[in-house]
Design goal:
Helix content is about 40%, strand content about 20%. The protein is built from nine helices and seven strands; from the N terminus they run H-H-H-H-H-H-E-H-E-E-E-E-H-E-H-E. Helix 1 runs antiparallel to helix 6 and helix 8 runs parallel beside helix 9.
Length: about 220
């Protein structure tokens, strides 16, 4: 059975949050930023980042400002504006505008009564700065022929809890490059519910994970 999608609720809640002064105050780096109504407003910076385009930043800016019938801004103006935005804004948007809107009325796809939540981790290449290396660590890269080390870029371990039938990210975590993926998976559990079925590959088949799932009364398949 194909159940109705809920894009309008998501759009309405997103608009409401982006206009909310409390939301803005929580997710900016300083109370002194995003005060004046400049071209790069708090909400527009968020929407630009959410485009996830493969185009150059300048081309994206030109297209978006063209659609808004405004003179465009430069990449050098967008970069500092983006740096004043906390990553927590996207976490709250996902939780309140998507997850909280999609599930409460019960009209979503299930498998034998369960939400199906797949959990997996993956290494990510991060912007290679000293500050990021200190927090997330590095991973050696080789040339693939004689295993000669050619670099040690900043990397992290991302873990995502993804609801596969309705295609929604329930929770995500980003840890140190050498973090244990089970430790990150455990951090997803507060976002899960008793009628969830957690799906994981054999890399998670540890006593720690199985015992933790039992302790939290969660169903799982590894």
């Amino acid at each position: 059975m194909k159940l109705p999608q809920k894009p309008q609720q998501v759009v309405n809640t997103t608009k409401k949050l982006l206009k909310d002064e409390e939301f803005k105050s929580h997710h900016r780096t300083s109370p002194k930023v995003f005060l004046r109504e400049r071209k790069l407003t708090f909400s527009l910076v968020i929407l630009l980042i959410m485009q996830k385009t493969m185009k150059s930043i300048q081309l994206l800016l030109n297209e978006v400002f063209g659609q808004l019938d405004l003179d465009t801004v430069t990449n050098s103006a967008f970069t500092p504006a983006r740096s004043h935005l906390k990553h927590t804004a996207f976490i709250e948007l996902n939780q309140k505008a998507i997850v909280a809107e999609y599930y409460p009325d019960g009209t979503y796809q299930r498998y034998r009564g369960f939400r199906l939540l797949a959990i997996d981790g993956s290494k990510l290449r991060l912007p290679d700065s000293r500050e990021i290396q200190e927090v997330f660590g590095t991973i050696k890269t080789t040339n693939g022929k004689d295993n000669q080390i050619i670099g040690k870029p900043a990397c992290g371990l991302a873990s995502v809890c993804y609801e596969v039938l309705n295609k929604i990210v329930i929770d995500s975590q980003l840890g140190n490059a050498r973090a244990y993926e089970v430790d990150l998976a455990v951090k997803h559990l507060p976002a899960t519910q008793p009628q969830d079925l957690l799906l994981l590959d054999r890399g998670y088949a540890s006593y720690q994970w199985l015992a933790t799932c039992v302790q939290h009364q969660r169903h799982f398949v590894v």
